[in-house]
Amino acid sequence: IEHRAPETGDRLHAVSVEPGSRLAAIVSAGVIEVTTRHHQAVDRVGAGLVVSARAPDGLVEAVEGADPERFLLGVQWHPERNPEAPASRALFEAFIAACASRGFCGVALQAAGQSR
Fold it and tell me: Which residues, in sequence order, are CB contacts of 30 under 8 Å at separation 6+?
């Protein structure tokens, strides 16, 4: 897989999501299409993290925290570049829900001059 996108536009490729992962619960799918435009990759997964998605060539595409009580999810792709995609939207909604459950959304809205 060529993970670097051309100078203009984005390239899409499939990513296999690990069953039972937080990411799998969020996107409700075993395989998703993601944008790719990166030139760096995870070499070794750090302590407290687990792989939650891989490209067909084995490249780590997502990691998440091993502690299910904490929302920690990192993706190698750019969900903001394809916000209409169901997986992208699900990621954004999960992040907002995690923030709201901890009371952070009100702070962000107040900082932006908005109310709940």
Answer: 16, 17, 19, 24
Which regions of the chain are under pLDDT 50? Answer: none
Q: Is residue 92 part of a domain?
A: yes
Angle at 79 between CA 2 and CA 30, to 5 degrees: 75
In a domain, 3, yes or no: no
Encoding tokens for residue 115?
Answer: 């109310």
* Residue 61: other Cβ atoms inside 10 A: 27
d(CA 116, CA 113): 10
Residue 21 domain boundaries: 11-111
pTM over 0.90: no
Q: How many independent structural domains does the chain possess?
A: 1
Give the tens place of pLDDT for each residue, 62-71: 999 999 888 9
